[in-house]
Design a protein that fits this description.
The chain is mainly α. The chain contains three helices and three strands, in the order βββααα.
Protein backbone atom coordinates (compact mmCIF):
# COMPACT_ATOMS: atom_id res chain seq x y z
CA UNK A 1 0.00 0.00 0.00
CA UNK A 2 1.26 3.46 -0.85
CA UNK A 3 0.55 6.83 0.68
CA UNK A 4 -0.56 10.07 -0.90
CA UNK A 5 1.23 13.41 -0.60
CA UNK A 6 -0.40 14.03 2.78
CA UNK A 7 0.80 10.66 4.08
CA UNK A 8 -2.67 9.08 4.11
CA UNK A 9 -2.91 5.40 3.13
CA UNK A 10 -3.87 4.94 -0.48
CA UNK A 11 -5.08 1.73 -2.08
CA UNK A 12 -5.20 0.89 -5.78
CA UNK A 13 -8.35 2.97 -6.30
CA UNK A 14 -7.41 5.97 -4.15
CA UNK A 15 -7.42 6.97 -0.50
CA UNK A 16 -8.89 4.41 1.88
CA UNK A 17 -11.97 5.41 3.79
CA UNK A 18 -11.50 4.98 7.53
CA UNK A 19 -14.26 5.21 10.09
CA UNK A 20 -13.94 8.01 12.63
CA UNK A 21 -11.53 7.34 15.46
CA UNK A 22 -13.28 5.68 18.40
CA UNK A 23 -11.36 6.22 21.67
CA UNK A 24 -13.39 3.48 23.38
CA UNK A 25 -12.26 0.93 20.78
CA UNK A 26 -8.66 2.10 21.11
CA UNK A 27 -8.87 1.63 24.87
CA UNK A 28 -10.40 -1.82 24.42
CA UNK A 29 -7.48 -2.79 22.17
CA UNK A 30 -5.01 -1.54 24.77
CA UNK A 31 -6.78 -3.41 27.58
CA UNK A 32 -6.68 -6.66 25.57
CA UNK A 33 -2.91 -6.32 25.46
CA UNK A 34 -2.66 -5.48 29.18
CA UNK A 35 -4.64 -8.64 30.01
CA UNK A 36 -2.27 -10.64 27.81
CA UNK A 37 -5.00 -11.62 25.36
CA UNK A 38 -3.06 -10.42 22.28
CA UNK A 39 0.54 -9.89 21.26
CA UNK A 40 2.18 -6.46 21.16
CA UNK A 41 2.24 -6.64 17.36
CA UNK A 42 -1.50 -7.29 17.19
CA UNK A 43 -2.06 -4.40 19.58
CA UNK A 44 0.02 -1.95 17.55
CA UNK A 45 -1.81 -3.00 14.38
CA UNK A 46 -5.21 -2.50 16.06
CA UNK A 47 -4.19 0.91 17.43
CA UNK A 48 -2.90 1.97 14.02
CA UNK A 49 -6.05 0.79 12.21
CA UNK A 50 -8.17 2.41 14.90
CA UNK A 51 -6.68 5.85 14.36
CA UNK A 52 -4.49 6.34 17.42
CA UNK A 53 -2.16 8.66 15.50
CA UNK A 54 -5.03 10.91 14.48
CA UNK A 55 -6.38 10.96 18.04
CA UNK A 56 -2.99 11.93 19.45
CA UNK A 57 -2.42 14.57 16.77
CA UNK A 58 -5.81 16.16 17.40
CA UNK A 59 -5.23 16.09 21.17
CA UNK A 60 -1.85 17.79 20.83
CA UNK A 61 -3.32 20.39 18.48
CA UNK A 62 -6.17 21.10 20.90
CA UNK A 63 -3.67 21.63 23.71
CA UNK A 64 -1.66 24.01 21.54
CA UNK A 65 -4.82 25.89 20.57
CA UNK A 66 -5.63 26.33 24.25
CA UNK A 67 -2.19 27.75 24.92
CA UNK A 68 -0.80 24.62 26.58
CA UNK A 69 2.63 23.16 26.10
Amino acid sequence: MSTNAAGAPQGPSGPEERPPTDPAKLLASWMEWERGDVTPGQTIAALKRGGLRELLESTVQAQLDLGGT
